[in-house]
Design a protein that fits this description.
The protein is of the alpha+beta class. It has three helices and seven strands. A three-stranded antiparallel β-sheet has the order 2-1-7. It has a two-stranded antiparallel ribbon with strand order 3-6. Strands 4-5 form a two-stranded antiparallel ribbon. The radius of gyration is 15 Å and the shape is globular.
């Protein structure tokens, strides 16, 4: 991973929504009794596993912002979601030390700001404009 890059993941072709789309790494839902930091830590271990020789802990996450969104996928499939957005920065991450769950993710890659914005323009990314705006601003300041 280079300084101004982020890890994104391509959703599995078997997913009910946003199949084959590229998305931020890692996105997920809370389980009963979890707060958003605990869910973020759990989702990392479920979707992508980074083999660095040490564990990622809740304290390693940096909170960025929260927002709400309603999205209609089909007439009977409407999501009302609350998003808490965190960044996890780790030294030494590259594609060779990342493993991902094939049922959830079919591919991963690191992208820079310009590639991320091109993918947004080409509608290759799951619609999360607030997150991509925050990522772009964050990476631009680095």
């Amino acid at each position: 991973m280079k300084k101004n890059e982020i890890l994104i993941q391509q959703r599995s072709a078997n997913k009910d929504k946003n199949a084959n789309m590229w998305d931020i790494s890692v996105a997920g839902h809370l389980s009963s009794g979890q707060d958003s930091l605990q869910a973020a830590s759990r989702e990392i271990s479920e979707e992508v596993t980074v083999c660095l020789g040490y564990n990622v802990e809740v304290k390693d996450f940096r909170f960025m912002f929260s927002f709400r969104k309603q999205q209609v996928f089909k007439e009977n499939f409407i999501e009302n979601q609350f998003y808490d957005f965190f960044i996890l920065r780790q030294v030494g991450i590259n594609e060779n030390n990342i493993r991902f769950q094939k049922e959830e993710v079919q591919s991963i890659k690191f992208v820079d700001i310009s590639t991320l914005n091109e993918m947004r323009e080409n509608n290759e990314l799951v619609e999360r404009d607030e997150c991509y705006d925050a990522l772009t601003n964050y990476l631009f300041r680095m």
